[in-house]
Amino acid sequence: MLQFASSLIFALLLASTLFFELPTPSSAADRSSALPRTGQRPQKPSTSAAQRGATATGKTAEPSGAGRIPAPPGSSGTTASGKLAETSGWQEAFDAGAAAKLAGRYPEAERLLKRAVELAEPFGENDRRLADSRLLLGGVYLRTSRLQEAEDLYKKVLPVYEKSDGPESTMVGILLDNLAQVYDAQGNLAEGEKLHNQSLAILEKTLGPNSVDFAMNLANLSGVYHRQRKYDKAEELLKRAISIEEKLPGAEKHLATSLDNLASVYYEQDRLADAEPIRRRALGIYERALGPDHHETGICLNNLAALCARQGKFGEAASLYDRAAQVLTKSLGPDSPEVRSLMKNRDFARVLEQQAQGKPDQAQTKPPSGQRKP
User: Fold this and answer.
1) Any idea which of 209-218, 264-273, 321-330, 356-365 has the lowest mean pLDDT?
2) Largest Cα span, the chain
3) What pLDDT is stored for residue 29 in this prediction?
4) Measured between alpha carbons, how far is 226 from 117 in angstroms, rounded to an integer?
5) How far apart are CA 241 and CA 95, in angstroms?
6) In terms of C-beta density within 10 A (0-12 exposed, 13-18 middle, 19 or more buried), how is residue 369 classed?
7) What is the DSSP track for 286-317?
8) What are the b/e assignments for 307-318, b being 16+ CB within 10 Å?
9) Are 339 and 332 in contact (CB under 8 A)?
10) Cα 220 from Cα 45, distance rounded (Å)
11) pLDDT over 80 at 36, yes or no
12) Residue 121 burial by Cβ neighbours in a 10 Å radius (0-12, 13-18, 19+)
């Protein structure tokens, strides 16, 4: 009995230092999939699937042919002119890329949106079709931690939206928040905080303090305070965001993100009993709103696994890590750092479970490497 207790204490000590969460996707990164929020589109192509297919759960109706790359401009025989063919080809790539992005199929989304950018480039640097395509592609890069590429695209399109919609417009507010998230992830928290607050001021004027976009920005600003370990401020902002999102139809996905981030704030403070029910609620919402195989569901599965491991629930942690790895392999690829860390954490959780039960080790007990904190 004494030997079992010692093994359990050793396992719990290891778990408290080795199992880290993955960063929960920020709410605003996906807002580029719902262009435009204000209805402002001076150069308006036909309505995209991302705009026309929104449902109460935040899912998007996937257009037919979503997996196809459109033919080069002017090659289609179904249009009356080359310009119409170019617009049609761009629209198909844009719609399909937006649907793939919203579904969390990021490799497919990147391929299609790069094609949309290529097809939109002949329209000119100030054309909204090119800006919209770059904005969605920037969201894919932000989701997959390709931060410099995301920053470059956001900076390219910001002047376009400032000119077409106005410097105090909703679109500019949303884009500033997305750019702020890039700075947050790069560790430039001062610049990130500045842009988050600038974005909040714009959206409070254009949409109001009870809108889903305003709530999402509150949640994203909380991430700055979380990284600075100002947990009281982070918790306050997240609770504000949650109180807004709980009342709004169609905000389920964003509510889940705010809940998961609040659980992360508690996790960092070792308030594990407070974090667990919130994170389980977030996971349930993700699974209902986005599906069990969505990228964001996979992130939440990983984070719940880390929480279980910290509490000594190593068997459940290993099972959750396994599910998370299956989901994130689809969205990020099997060789991504996140997936490799998940697999190592899963294997190590199994080792700790055996040690806690007093069983002989059946696997290498070297701690996993490559973990990273949010």
Assistant:
1) 356-365
2) 83
3) 44
4) 35
5) 30
6) exposed
7) HHHHT-TTSHHHHHHHHHHHHHHHHTT-HHHH
8) bbbbbbbbbbbb
9) yes
10) 31
11) no
12) middle
Averaged confidence pLDDT in the chain: 79
Tokens of residue 289, six digits: 């709103």
Residue type, 118: E
**In Å, how far are 74, 77, 87, 300 from 81, measured between CA atoms?**
8, 9, 10, 48
- How far apart are the C-alpha atoms of 343 and 367, rounded to whole Å? 12
Beta bridge partners, 54, equal: 60
pLDDT in tens, 281-330: 999 999 999 999 999 999 999 999 999 999 999 999 999 999 999 999 98
> Are 279 and 300 contacting, i.e. CB atoms less than 8 angstroms apart?
yes
Torsion of CA 118, 155, 131, 31, to 10 degrees: 110
| Residues 297/327, Cβ–Cβ less than 8 Å | yes
The DSSP secondary structure of 138-190, one letter per residue, reads HHHHHHTT-HHHHHHHHHHHHHHHHHHT-TTSHHHHHHHHHHHHHHHHHT-HH
pTM above 0.85, yes or no: no
pLDDT for 19 equals 57
- Tell me if 86 sits within 8 A of 280, measured CB to CB: no
Structure tokens at 76: 């289609």
Name the region of 65 (left: φ>0; alpha: ψ -120 to 50; beta: rest).
left
| CB neighbours of residue 88 within 10 Å | 19
* Element of type H or E holding 89: helix 82-102
